[in-house]
Structure formats: C-alpha cells, structure tokens
Amino acid sequence: MNPRLHPREDHWLDYASGHLDPASRTLLEAHLAFCGICRREAGQDLAPGGALLAAMPEAEPPAELLQGILARLKAPEAPRVGGEALPLPRALWSLLPSLEGAAWHGALTRGFRFLEAGGGLFLIHMEKGRPFPEHGHRGLERAVILAGGLEDAGRVLEAGDFDEEDPSRVHAPVALPDEDCWLLASLEGGIRFTGWRGLLQRAAGR
Ligand SMILES: [Zn+2]
C-alpha cells in the first residue's frame, strides 16, 4: 500500500538540487523507499541517486519483512544495534549510517526508546500500544514511519508516511496496538532544551 502522507513538492526540489542536510535527505529517501508516487514524480530528476532510487523495491508489509526477508537476504545486512538486528525495510538498510556503535536511550517511558543516527537524525522505537513520552509544544520537525504505525491526534500514520509537524501543535502520538512502531525523525531547527529536542537531549545526558 502506498503511503498517504507525502513530503511537500518543494522538498523534492531541494532534494534534487542537493540543498538538503543529510538528515532531511535520509528522511526523504526513506519515504521514497515506500512511495511509488514520489519515485515517479521526483526520481527522474535525481542524479546520480535516481537509478538507485528507481531500483528500490516496492514496500512490503513489515510482518513479512520480520518473518522472511531478514532470514532470506544475506547482504547487505540489516542494521544492528548492540547485536540486535532491527526489523527495518531492506530498502532502507543502505540509507542508514552504521548503528552498531550507537546506544539506545530512553527509559523515560516504558516501551519507548531511541538512538541518535547522526546528523540530527533519530531512530525511534515505540512498542505496540505505547505512547510517546509527553512533551511540550514543539513537535517533531519531520518524521517517516518505517514500520508499524501510530495514531496522532486522530490521524493514523503508517509505514512510509511522511509527517512534518507544525511546531505550535501539541500532540501525543501512540503506537498502534497491533505492531511495534519504528520511525526516523529529524529534530533540527528546534530550540535547545525545549520540546522534543530538549527531551532527547536531556535523555541523552546533554
Ligand atoms: Zn510519496
């Protein structure tokens, strides 16, 4: 199923012109891994990454990924953290920096953890049915759901959906009840020690 929530058109112009920071670029490429619509619209203008992106497979259901793909495919290997292979779509593996040396942060809320993937990018894991820790009035800057989904203020976001938050909006996402939710989030642009970024900074001891 194609994602329903897409990056704005001007993001693709920035992407094609190479004017994006690495974190934003990774988020857009994560969306492209799921989204045939955006691949068709944006992929033709992208070089040299265009051929790579066009070759990405269609998104497959996370359950299938969990059960079959990791076992079937040998290289490249799934990203690992502390020896744990992450159940992320294969099309994303090459996009992520090495996470082997990264450490999980969290324990602010049971069933929630995150790690820094470098360059302002965070990989977040919410156990099924669990909420994101309560936070202030600054929202996520940008996020892409990698697996599972979450409910956020009456909206349901699922794999591949790209979300860009209005910083003034208060929200409290909750992972959907049937599957763990994995997402990539870019927190650039936040004000230090406030909102999401401050929450993560404090949790990381910074
Ligand atoms: Zn799209």
Automatic annotation (TrEMBL):
<dbReference type="InterPro" id="IPR014710">
    <property type="entry name" value="RmlC-like_jellyroll"/>
</dbReference>
<dbReference type="InterPro" id="IPR041916">
    <property type="entry name" value="Anti_sigma_zinc_sf"/>
</dbReference>
<feature type="domain" description="ChrR-like cupin">
    <location>
        <begin position="117"/>
        <end position="185"/>
    </location>
</feature>
<protein>
    <submittedName>
        <fullName>Transcriptional regulator</fullName>
    </submittedName>
</protein>
<dbReference type="InterPro" id="IPR025979">
    <property type="entry name" value="ChrR-like_cupin_dom"/>
</dbReference>
<dbReference type="InterPro" id="IPR011051">
    <property type="entry name" value="RmlC_Cupin_sf"/>
</dbReference>
<dbReference type="Pfam" id="PF12973">
    <property type="entry name" value="Cupin_7"/>
</dbReference>
